[in-house]
């Protein structure tokens, strides 16, 4: 993972070693050209060099070289970053900013543990809820009960901005909607082989309909779709928030559980954040001699749903199946999830797929590839910054005149619902899989 890491097994350098606090070797890649500055949402908000990718790299180098202390300003700048990776897309030197940030956050956590309450919250969230199906179900039931009792409406006045966000969280659907994917969904028409799909951690509880739509659309293109019932979490949120040991453990579990079902089929993901992370398991486990090859092989099998569908055979099957009786309000606009366009380099396929739907008018939104401010749990940790980042995107959405906004990541889906819910706009937010499923003609 880091070139400053030791090579022994999956050991990382001791966190008290100043040089290991940041990935010094990667920081040296930056040539200070500044091309990344205007793409960075936190630089756009503050106009401050320190809050830009180049500024953060400068801070990282200063700490690594002993010229500065990893003080509160350093920590705040690391946490202010959304890890949207927009800076990576424009960087001529190939600086891997996302990996550097995960490494720095991990080392910061070890070196400077948060207070007791934050430690308990992190333990409950990352080790109690996210990794256990029972924990996720319990949390979903709790949130649904709060929504049914309208406690979410009270949360605004009681908890300020965090409460308002709570109020605009997606409605947790009823238990019938929160059922897991079937182990096998047979193909429709001539079979085209098997794919595995990720059900995910929060997806089945909040966006189970999206997973089912993905399954239906894949089956409609001739794929046998297999889920992995034992699996819960890929570890993306853990990695982004510096919980690296847990992220590595979850990567090993994910690989083992998927391989147990099928060790060669493509692994199709409808959540951009999870897909970007699973494509990097090879990097995450690079220092583990027992797992690194298996991890790299597994990562090569991971594809986003849009990559899978936009292949020639997928497109041909979709053309046969898509009709104009979808009832989707137009115009429709596509918002690139950061972890799809910057993290995976997938930009054209979603647009191409939307253009296949008969009668759908697609309009481009300016700044579609800028961050919406969701960034995993950033919405909860830094609600004001998160909404400030979304604000210009809401204006861009307004300018398109779109009645439907399409995305492909649960965090972005939720963030847009929060932003639109706080405004007087009437724009439906849909996952691309839902658009395609609605347009499928019955066979
Ligand atoms: S990852 Fe995003 S927020 Fe962080 S420095 Fe890069 S562009 Fe800025
Ligand atoms: S674009 Fe890359 S090389 Fe240029 S300043 Fe930003 S991070 Fe450094």
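-> sequence recovered:
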């Amino acid at each position: 993972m880091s070139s400053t890491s030791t090579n022994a097994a999956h050991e990382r350098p001791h966190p008290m070693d100043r040089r290991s606090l940041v990935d010094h070797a990667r920081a040296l890649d930056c040539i200070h050209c500044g091309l990344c500055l205007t793409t960075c949402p936190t630089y756009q908000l503050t106009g401050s060099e320190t809050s830009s990718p180049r500024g953060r790299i400068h801070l990282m180098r200063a700490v690594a070289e002993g010229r500065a202390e990893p003080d509160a300003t350093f920590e705040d700048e690391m946490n202010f970053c959304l890890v949207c990776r927009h800076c990576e897309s424009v960087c001529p030197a190939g600086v891997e900013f996302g990996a550097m940030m995960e490494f720095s956050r991990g080392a910061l956590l070890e070196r400077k543990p948060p207070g007791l309450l934050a430690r308990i919250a992190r333990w409950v969230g990352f080790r109690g809820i996210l990794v256990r199906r029972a924990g996720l179900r319990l949390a979903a039931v709790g949130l649904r009960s709060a929504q049914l009792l309208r406690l979410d409406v009270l949360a605004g006045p009681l908890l300020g901005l965090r409460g308002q966000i709570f109020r605009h969280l997606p409605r947790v659907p009823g238990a019938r909607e929160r059922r897991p994917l079937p182990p096998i969904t047979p193909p429709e028409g001539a079979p085209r082989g098997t794919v595995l799909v990720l059900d995910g951690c929060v997806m089945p509880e909040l966006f189970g309909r999206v997973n089912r739509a993905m399954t239906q659309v894949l089956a409609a293109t001739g794929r046998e779709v297999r889920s992995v019932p034992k699996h819960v979490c890929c570890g993306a949120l853990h990695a982004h928030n510096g919980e690296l040991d847990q992220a590595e453990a979850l990567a090993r579990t994910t690989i083992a559980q998927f391989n147990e079902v099928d060790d060669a089929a493509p692994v199709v993901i409808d959540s951009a954040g999870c897909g970007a992370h699973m494509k990097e398991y090879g990097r995450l486990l690079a220092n583990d001699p027992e797992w690194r090859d298996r991890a790299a092989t597994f990562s090569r099998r991971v594809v986003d749903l849009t990559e899978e569908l936009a292949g020639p055979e997928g497109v041909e099957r979709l053309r046969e199946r898509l009709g104009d009786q979808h009832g989707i309000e137009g115009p429709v606009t596509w918002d690139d999830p950061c972890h799809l366009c910057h993290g995976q380099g997938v930009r054209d396929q979603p647009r191409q797929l939307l253009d296949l739907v008969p009668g759908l008018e697609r309009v481009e939104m300016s700044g579609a590839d800028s961050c919406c401010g969701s960034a995993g749990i950033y919405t909860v940790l830094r609600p004001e910054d998160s909404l400030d980042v979304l604000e210009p995107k809401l204006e861009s959405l307004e300018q398109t005149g779109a009645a439907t906004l399409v995305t492909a990541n649960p965090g972005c889906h939720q963030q847009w619902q929060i932003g639109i819910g706080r405004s007087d706009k009437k724009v439906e937010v849909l996952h691309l899989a839902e658009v395609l499923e609605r347009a499928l003609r019955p066979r």
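Residues 30-36, 53-54, 57, 87, 90-91, 93, 95 surround iron/sulfur cluster (ligand 2) (CB under 6 Å).
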